[in-house]
From TrEMBL:
Domain ACT: 195-275
Classification via InterPro entries: ACT-like_dom_sf, ACT_dom, Preph_deHydtase
Gene Ontology MF terms: prephenate dehydratase activity
Alphabetized UniProt keyword annotations: Amino-acid biosynthesis, Aromatic amino acid biosynthesis, Lyase, Phenylalanine biosynthesis
CDD domains in UniProt: ACT_CM-PDT, PBP2_Ct-PDT_like
One Gene Ontology term, aspect cellular component: cytoplasm
Any GO BP annotation: L-phenylalanine biosynthetic process
Catalytic activity: prephenate + H(+) = 3-phenylpyruvate + CO2 + H2O
Name this polypeptide is given: prephenate dehydratase
Domain of life (superkingdom): Bacteria
Native species: Hyunsoonleella aquatilis
Length: 275
């Protein structure tokens, strides 16, 4: 039973939206300004689960989050894909012409660059969180200041949306992982996706051989991400996501890769959210 969840950001953030959409029942939120703090809250038992963004369809993988899940022996128990819609908002009664500065997360600013080219009078300022800026504008009644955040943030902090969906690429999805301290509670017959980490021997064909095992065992490789092994220069670990129709096929592949790889770790078994 999950009652409390740690998220990166404040209420109204995209992580908060995921918490509302993923869980069947309402959960209490622990707001964290950094992913380090999210992981700390989970490890210390302050929450039952955590939500962490893993990759964006435009920006790619958030590699430090993969490393944090791995290094802290956490387990992915679910995933959720969210359509990211960025909106320009400010205190009620203002127009875009009145806005002098817009504060937001660097990624949000980057994804909305084309929109602001049409409004050269607005200065863009990097900040730590999208929804937190919206909260600050409301708390301090900051006029002539805008935020880029979700419609939910505008509703929570009572701001006017001056422009909807201002991101340059309109189809912009982020994949989020639901993470716990223990392994998945998903019934075996419902598991059809897994995240694993392995190392390959530093010799010709070793990675290809492991990938061939996955193919032979009827696994569909949906993601592969390399990460340097800090202790061993020029050697890499691989984070891999696979989907499958039969859990037995995954178990067969897993048993073979464990033999072939110098190091193997199961990061999570869960339901595929992208069907």
């Amino acid at each position: 039973m999950i009652n409390t969840v740690a998220i990166q950001g404040v209420k109204g953030s995209f992580h908060h939206i995921v918490s509302r959409e993923f869980f069947e029942k309402p959960v209490d939120i622990i707001e964290c300004m950094t992913f380090d703090r999210v992981v700390e809250a989970l490890i210390n038992g302050e929450c039952d689960a955590a939500i962490m963004a893993l990759e964006n369809s435009i920006a790619g993988s958030i590699i430090p989050n993969y490393a944090m899940i791995d290094n802290n022996y956490l387990h992915i128990v679910g995933e959720h894909y969210l359509d990211i819609q960025h909106n320009l908002m400010a205190l009620p009664g203002q127009r875009i012409e009145d806005i002098k500065e817009v504060y937001s997360h660097p990624m949000a600013l980057l994804q909305c660059k084309r929109f602001f080219r049409g409004h050269p009078h607005i200065k863009l300022v990097e900040d730590k969180d999208t929804a937190e800026v919206a909260d600050r504008i409301q708390k301090h009644k900051l006029k002539h200041i805008g935020a880029i955040a979700s419609v939910l943030a505008a509703e929570i902090f009572e701001l006017d949306v001056l422009a909807h969906s201002i991101q340059t690429i309109k189809h912009n999805e982020t994949r989020f992982a639901v993470v716990k301290r223990t392994n998945s509670e998903v019934p075996e017959n419902e598991i059809n996706k897994a995240s694993i980490k392995f190392e390959a021997d530093h010799k010709r064909g070793s990675l290809a051989t492991i990938l061939n095992v996955m193919s032979d065992c009827k696994l569909n490789l949906t993601k592969i991400q390399s990460l340097p092994i800090i202790e061993t220069p020029w050697k890499y670990a691989f984070f891999v996501d696979v989907t499958f129709d039969a859990y037995a096929d995954f178990l067969k592949a897993k048993s073979l890769i464990e033999i072939m790889s110098p190091s193997f770790k199961l990061l999570g078994e869960y339901k595929n959210a992208k069907l």
